[in-house]
Amino acid sequence: MLKKPSTTAAILTMPDVLAAAELYERAFDFRRLRYFDGNEEYLVLGRGDAQIHLAQFGSATPHHLNGGHVADVFCWVTDLAPILASARAAGLPVRRGPDSYDSTPVATTEVVFEVPDGYWFCFATADRVHQA
User: Fold this and answer.
1) Which residues pair with 99 in a beta bridge?
2) Structure pTM?
3) 75-125, pLDDT tens digit by residue?
4) Burial class (CB in 10 A: 0-12, 13-18, 19+), 29
5) Could you tell me the residue ranges of all domains in the chain?
6) Strand ordering across the sheet containing 50-56
7) Homologous superfamily of 9-129
């Protein structure tokens, strides 16, 4: 039996918070949480145990630009098929995957999408936990 992976949280800066939120809802099934009601410059979205905070700022600051195998958001899911379908329907390019990785402590299958602000979103399934 797989141990449930930990919660994910990320803060992303961008010039248009509302446009990003609408895309993330449509493409990745995130939902607006009721934090900061009425604040269109800072929104919190949730998907299962994961949260992303969107902050209005003059530009995006993607972290993946500083590392070879880095995503700006990493989110555990139970099934990649719905994410693949909805992200492709939204016109988002796949940057990597789906690829399987068999490393300690967990074997995963991952897919990475790029959004218009340049951020990379990685969605992963925990395929197997290695026993010590």
Assistant:
1) 110
2) 0.82
3) 888 899 999 999 999 999 999 888 888 876 778 889 999 999 989 999 988
4) middle
5) 9-129
6) 9-14, 50-56, 42-47, 31-32
7) 2,3-Dihydroxybiphenyl 1,2-Dioxygenase, domain 1 (3.10.180.10)
Do the Cβ atoms of 33 and 46 come closer than 8 Å? yes
Quick check: 17 and 57 in contact, CB under 8 A?
no
pLDDT band at 67 (very low <50, low <70, confident <90, very high): low
Amino acid in the structure at residue 75: C
The token duo for 50 is 């994961």
Please identify which residue in the block is written with the tokens 């490393």.
103
Residue appearing with tokens 């990475």: 112
- What SS3 class is residue 132? coil
Q: Is 31 helix (H, G, I), strand (E, B) or coil?
A: strand
